[in-house]
Amino acid sequence: MKRRQPQNQKNDPGDTETTKLRIIGGSLGGQVVTYSGDPRTRPMKNRVREAMFNLVGPWVKETYTLDLFAGTGAVAFESLSRGSVGALLVEKHFPTVHLINENVRHLNLEAVTQVVAGDAFHWVEHRMADEFAPPQDVPWSLFFCPPYSFFVDRKQEMLDMMHTLTQRAPVGSHVIVEFDKQFDPQNLPQPELWDVRAYAPAILAVKRGTRPE
After folding, report:
1. Is 0.85 surpassed by the pTM of this model?
2. I want to staple 139 with a disulfide (CB 3.0 to 4.6 A). Which of 173, 178, 186, 210 is the partner?
3. What is the C-alpha separation between 208 and 195, in angstroms, rounded?
């Protein structure tokens, strides 16, 4: 497993409380995403999101994005901005779902975005194969960015969910996981295949899919 520690970390203006997030790059770069500020919805810090998409931005082009713990929706919007062909966002906090839908309309992404109000674990087990089935004709970019406590309190559920989705994903799909030091990345499936990078307090683990020649 490759581990890398970033050099020269800087203070991030996104570390302070805010009600506005900005899409960092791509066709929607600079556009504002409204965020309620509710502490139950933890937005990924700007520097972490930027670092993540510096790495995976080229991968998401022409993939379908699944954001299983969508929160603000900023991760999925960033992926769409960088060329993802569509996105499905799952979020269980209903007021936040309302804001996500408002942002979808503001960004003119209605044609390529589905927003599911509900629990991600329930969706994977009971709804994924129904009206919200992701396409099977393009690879997926799977983002798992839940509350960090889930990797402790619901560790096996998280691992089971990742296993289920990676088994169902088309060939060439990518997996991106965000957690903190409470979770040992050696617990990830096939840990030797992951690129693990620390952006304290966040840790990112990414596994790039390979497509057939």
Report:
1. yes
2. 173
3. 9
Mean pLDDT of 171-195: 96
- Long-range contact set of residues 46-50: C-beta below 8 Å, sequence gap at least 24: 46/12, 46/13, 46/14, 46/15, 46/21, 46/22, 47/9, 47/10, 47/12, 47/14, 47/15, 47/199, 48/178, 48/199, 48/202, 48/204, 49/14, 49/24, 49/74, 49/75, 49/78, 50/24, 50/25
Instruction: Give per-residue pLDDT as tens, 28-76.
Output: 999 999 887 766 666 687 889 999 999 999 999 999 999 999 999 999 9
Which tokens go with 173?
A: 């799909």
Cα Dmax for the chain: 46
Give one word for 62, left, alpha or beta, with left for phi > 0 and alpha for psi -120 to 50. Answer: left
Q: d(Cα 166, Cα 183) in Å, to the nearest integer?
A: 20
Identify which of 173, 209, 197, 199 has the alpha carbon closest to the alpha carbon of residue 66. Answer: 173
**pLDDT number for residue 44:** 80
pLDDT tens digits along 112-164: 999 999 999 999 998 887 767 899 999 999 999 999 999 999 999 999 999 99
- 150, two tokens: 């889930």
- Report residue 85 as tokens: 């062909």
Residue keyed to tokens 């990414």: 206
**Residue 208 carries which side chain, given as an amino acid letter?**
R
